[in-house]
Design goal:
The complex is a heterodimer of chains A (278) and B (279). Chain A is an all-alpha fold. Chain A is 72% helix and 0% strand. The mean pLDDT of chain A is 84. Chain B starts with a helix and ends with a helix. Classes of the chains: A mainly alpha (278), B mainly alpha (279).
Chain lengths: 278, 279
């Protein structure tokens, strides 16, 4: 028995070493990115490279905001993220709640239509989506980044699964007391759905903030760029202004890092429910 | 109540799907008259080596990636569902890359693997190893993409595995412990068989994720060097927006969607077969 325990200990020491080694590898790319963003032009391309910046100077950050229109790009991204998330949560809660609690004509079929598109990558549909966006008049407008992505099947699915677990007896007793259906939704079900709503809000915000595909299809004018599309377009195949690109990459990560550290639990739980990175 | 969601969904997903199907039968530059040519695009597609090459490259990329992007997260998940000190810190470290956008992932890897900026090439040279470059080396670019994809996809896959593992009843492990099973035996005889549905989900999600790789690839290699990492989505995009052949690009989209759907169905079938064999 003692022999066995010893053996188990040994295994776990080895496992620790492996996990620590992987942690270093996983932390490395972003750590290096952050450290490099504080290096000056000469140091950035110095050979051999330095690990820590010689002087932690925010000059790259200041320069980027002064030279480029980055304030605007961050503003656009914030507008898109906030409004699209509000819209996404509202319509998903309504839809998911209806699917979970009401029977209506064709409900199963409709739900199936939503769910089957979970597996359909937007990437392969981008041409006709682009054509529809042009027809609807969303082309080169932030509306095209706010409205279409808000209707995600993931949202409907998440909310429906959640409300299925909320007992319908609450509704029945409220009905006996003479509450209207709207009142039941407003004063009982909506407050009960707080946790799923915050989970969905986090995911929607994350996806919109990081989104590349919709802005690529919708936006043409540089005034309407989001941060991701600006980063991508200003770091062409050759002649990259690394100082700006590195600094602005770090700035885009900061809000997501904060969100992650605060809501880690919800994010990881929500992720395990559907397992999607859009 | 479903209406607002459904309306948006209808206009921006369902209508495009059918619209795309219709114009895939046409020769169209995006403006002017839509000229229907029947199955013409599909005949052309059949002998278009550019399209099939990009599909083949994507498949190769997916097949080379799959073992890594499944085994590594599975290993982490098994480790981090154990009673291990500091497991929350590890979980955070491995998960956090999943929160980073494709573009920044591309920027980060391009920066550390670059020729003039790359710290990795410096380290490799330090140990007397050959250089590994994104811009000039075909094999290098291919494996750097796989590495970058592994780096950001591990966290989310790990979390799915973790929820699968915690759903396995602990009584199995207790019984195995009493019978003196080693942790390796426990993994292969209990965890792995009971994890099959999760494994299947991960397989489908990963495969779709790999086939739609675009943003990160564009940022990291732009499909190069040459066409070495030009995958199927980029091929569709170029056909539509660089060569302005929207009908033909739609036909490519449709065929790709069909292939993905067939793969998913095949996996469903294979998974069901596996369950029957177990009984």
């Amino acid at each position: 028995m003692t022999n066995k325990i010893k053996k188990r200990k040994k295994v776990s020491v080895f496992a620790y070493l492996v996990l620590i080694a992987f942690s270093v590898l996983f932390l490395f790319p972003i750590t290096w990115l952050i450290l490099s963003s504080f290096k000056g032009y000469i140091e950035l391309f110095k050979y051999p490279p330095t690990l820590l910046p010689e002087s932690f100077s925010p000059v790259n950050y200041i320069d980027a905001f002064e030279k480029g229109n980055w304030l605007r790009y961050f503003g656009n991204t914030t507008i898109v993220t906030v409004f699209s998330t509000i819209l996404c949560v509202s319509i998903s809660v309504m839809g998911g709640y209806a699917f979970a609690k009401y029977k209506f004509k064709g409900d199963n079929f409709l739900f199936l239509v939503f769910i089957s598109t979970l597996m359909l990558p937007l990437e392969v549909l981008m041409i006709p989506i682009f054509l529809v966006i042009k027809k609807v008049g969303f082309y080169d407008s932030l509306l095209g980044l706010i409205i279409p992505p808000a209707a995600t099947p993931f949202g409907i699915f998440l909310v429906r699964q959640y409300y299925l677990s909320v007992p319908s007896e609450y509704m029945d007793s409220a009905r006996i007391d003479g509450a209207s259906e709207f009142r039941i939704f407003r004063s009982i079900m909506l407050p009960a759905g707080k946790s799923v709503m915050s989970c969905l809000a986090i995911f929607s915000a994350l996806w919109r903030w990081n989104d590349y595909l919709w802005p690529l299809l919708v936006i043409r004018n540089t005034d309407k760029y989001t941060v991701q599309i600006a980063l991508s377009n200003f770091s062409g195949q050759y002649n990259v202004d690394w100082q700006t690109i590195l600094a602005m990459s770090v700035v885009t990560m900061v809000p997501m890092l904060i969100v992650f550290l605060i809501f880690q639990k919800q994010i990881i739980n929500g992720m395990s429910m559907a397992g999607l990175k859009e | 109540m479903v209406l607002p969601n459904f309306l948006i969904f209808l206009v921006f997903i369902i209508i495009p799907f059918f619209y795309g199907t219709i114009i895939s039968f046409a020769d169209w530059k995006g403006i002017g008259k839509i000229n229907f040519i029947g199955l013409g695009n599909y005949f052309e597609l059949f002998s278009d080596s550019g399209f099939w090459d990009s599909l083949l490259r994507t498949t190769k990329f997916a097949l080379c990636s799959l073992p890594f992007i499944i085994i590594l997260p599975l290993f982490f998940a098994v480790m981090l569902t154990k009673n291990l000190k500091g497991k929350y810190i590890f979980r955070t470290i491995f998960y956090w890359p999943s929160m980073i956008s494709y573009i920044v992932v591309g920027i980060a890897f391009r920066f550390i693997f670059g020729d003039s900026t790359g710290v990795i090439n410096y380290l490799l040279q330090l140990f007397g190893l050959p250089k590994f470059s994104v811009m000039t080396n075909t094999t290098g670019a291919f494996w750097i993409l796989i590495l970058a994809n592994l780096w950001f996809s591990t966290g989310s896959t790990m979390v799915i595995f973790m929820s699968g593992i915690t759903n396995i009843s602990p009584t199995y492990y207790e019984a195995a412990e009493v019978d003196g099973a080693t942790s390796r035996q426990q993994f292969f005889k209990i965890t792995l068989p009971l994890l099959k549905p999760t494994l299947f989900l991960v397989l489908i999600l990963s495969l779709i994720g790999l086939f739609k790789a675009y943003g990160m690839v564009m940022q990291l290699t732009s499909g190069g060097p040459g066409d070495a990492t030009k995958f199927v989505v980029q091929n569709i995009y170029d056909t539509a927006f660089k060569r302005f052949r929207l009908g033909y690009a739609s036909a490519q989209s449709l065929v790709t969607t069909l292939i993905l759907a067939i793969l998913t169905i095949l996996q469903f079938k294979a998974n069901k077969g596996g369950e029957v064999n177990d009984k």
